[in-house]
Amino acid sequence: MKTITDIRGTFQLHNGVGMPYFGLGVYLADNEQEVVDAIHWALETGYRHIDTASIYKNEEGVGRAIQTSTIPREDVFVVSKVWNADQGFESTLKAFEDSLNRLQLDYLDLYLVHWPVQGKYIDTWKALEQLYKEKKIRAIGVSNFMIHHLEDLMQHTEIIPMVNQMEFHPHLVQQDLIDFCNQHHIQYEAWSPMMQGKIFDLKILDQFAEKYKKTVAQIVLRWNLQKGVVTIPKSVKKERIQSNADLFDFELSQEDIDRIDALDQNKRTGPDPDNFNF
């Protein structure tokens, strides 16, 4: 059982790096003042994990926010991802350098393969392994990889991914994938934990909100953490950023975790990793 303490707590990756289990996603935040403000509010609230990607087109803004924050760079866990069009060995090395330049950072804490592009993700991963050995990245991982993608990757490469970032919410639990990742010490991470806002339509969650005197969002995010899943809810609103972080003064019972698990419908709000065309 992983220990959850406070907003700055970490889960340990299999290479010993501590990854803050709660962070801010900046997908759809614009590259100007919006993303800078969101990150400043998050860091002031106690967040220490910021998740971006080259395809989000806001790495410059993320870098500006980190440079102009009062929090030292080494205290912030910064994540980016290589986009599909840049996959392949040499092109991934270049994409990584481009991301670092946009972020104006010397290193990344975590770099992910954004999607399992067929015929390319193994070469892409080998580039990440090289960057990791060169100490330009503290940890490397993947995103949207199903069990068969992970098995294929592990057969052809040296380093097992440290993280797998997946769509994860009450309608898409994928417990078999979580179990596989746990078995191989791959840290599971959630994207879209709020089902793109659709969690507020799940009436049973209102009962839990009432029982624990918390919001539906806080119930779902706490469920993420108690499942041992890193979570990075995205918001650009100060009140929401603060409210999302108010998770550390209550605990869901195992029975209630099981009841949320039981809402699983294997239903995605985003693309299917086995059938995407971008």
TrEMBL record:
Pfam families linked: Aldo_ket_red
Positions with a binding annotation for substrate: H114
Residues marked Lowers pKa of active site Tyr (site): K81
Nuclease in keyword set: no
PROSITE patterns per the UniProt record, alphabetical: ALDOKETO_REDUCTASE_1 (PS00798), ALDOKETO_REDUCTASE_2 (PS00062), ALDOKETO_REDUCTASE_3 (PS00063)
Domain NADP-dependent oxidoreductase: 30-264
UniProtKB keywords: NADP, Oxidoreductase
Matches recorded under InterPro entries: AKR (IPR020471), Aldo/ket_reductase_CS (IPR018170), NAD(P)_OxRdtase_dom_sf (IPR036812), NADP_OxRdtase_dom (IPR023210)
MF terms (GO), sorted A to Z: oxidoreductase activity, acting on the CH-OH group of donors, NAD or NADP as acceptor
Catalytic residue positions: Y56 (proton donor)
Oxidoreductase as UniProt keyword: yes
Family that this chain belongs to: Belongs to the aldo/keto reductase family.
Name by which UniProt lists this protein: Aldo/keto reductase
Organism annotation: Aquimarina spongiae
